Amino acid sequence: MDANAVYARALSRAFGGALLFSFPLLMTMEMWSLGIAVERWRLLVFLLLTLPMLIGLSYYAGFEPTFRLKDEVLDALAAFGVGFLLAAVLLGVFGVLRRDDILTQAGLGKIALCAAPAAVGALLAGKQLGERGPGAREKERAGPLSELFLMAVGAAFLAFNVAPTEEMVLIAYQMGPWATLALVAISILLLHVFVYQLGFPGETRRREAGDFRRTFVAFTCPGYGVALLMSLYLLWTFGRTDGVAAHEIATMTVVLGFPAAIGAATARLVI
Amino acid sequence: MAQKPKAASRSPASRSKGPPKPAPVKETPALEWASAAVGLALAATAIGFTAWDALFGAKGPPAIEVKLVEVTPTAHGYVAQVEAFNHGGEPAAQVQIEGVLSSQGAQQTSGFTIDYVAEGSKASGGLVFEKDPRAGELMLRATGFADAS
């Protein structure tokens, strides 16, 4: 088949994936108001982090079986374009952008914030909805660092779906210290069970790494650490930590760390 | 390139054994370049604009100007459509807009709340009066707001 036609199919898949992964966010009110309210510097950091994250992700799950840096960069850029266009069109149709000029902070902020998860969806779709199965190359490449990277992306992605909502703050206010500690324990337990006990992809190789204590220290703990870091970063980006007491920030991080931990554990499923 | 090489991850050359194409490096389709270029342009716009805004955008608290757009007499009072523009450097939330109409010695106050007015952006709403605002003196202002984040 013509290379362009093949690529066009991959591109359509990417739009499908972007839609699938980002529509809950596009239809969440807080995402629109955060597009206005997020501090410009934090939005800039967020956008600047998105691109290398997409390149890294493309390395594992690009919508083309690529091997070279040039292709990863091209795929990442295309995915960002897909995410941006999809977010712009859907937000436009939903009437969210009705009163904003596209090149004001209000318009661009809303689109840019939604473009990132849509771009991740676009990249993942290439593999998820694609014809090829998980290639040998991904498994070979999954060293400890790339394992952490994938966990971080999975954590950020799942946490991002709920991070903008008011509920994260509300839940944190409702929970006492003991409930918080219990949630930490549940998150770590789920993370460990999901990754090592339920027979998800990559499990065998990890089990070979050693006994329970060894895998717990070498994989589960760093995984939860990454999940908490991602939660804290997202909360900071959305301005949820400003002027809040340290223990409330900790509680919020743990609350958001719950979906983040599940995301980290299941990253291998999706990516 | 519909076929994915099954083994030997690193070398693209390994798959050139099967197909007749001898080129060890695969051609990047024009469409791939094009879509990447679109992505680059959009990313550069988003990042560039945000950076410009962060560096050189207006600083300072929200400064909200309220002005009258149009008055329409309806069966349920005079509707004064107003527009709020934020000249400041930060977005404002829950902006309370108030209009005081003084005509023939009597005063009537109307108001409404706007969820968000971003900096450099406008939002609009309506005030309803019993008497014609065009006949009297209408004072419009934003009486307060909450920080957006």
Automatic annotation (TrEMBL), chain A:
Source domain of life: Bacteria
Keyword list, A-Z: Membrane, Transmembrane, Transmembrane helix
Chaperone found in the keyword field: no
Regions that span the bilayer: 12-29, 41-61, 73-96, 145-163, 175-195, 216-237, 249-270
InterPro entries to which the protein is assigned, alphabetical: CHP02587_IM (IPR013416), DUF2391 (IPR024464)
rRNA-binding recorded as keyword: no
Full protein name: TIGR02587 family membrane protein
Organism for this UniProt entry: Caulobacter zeae
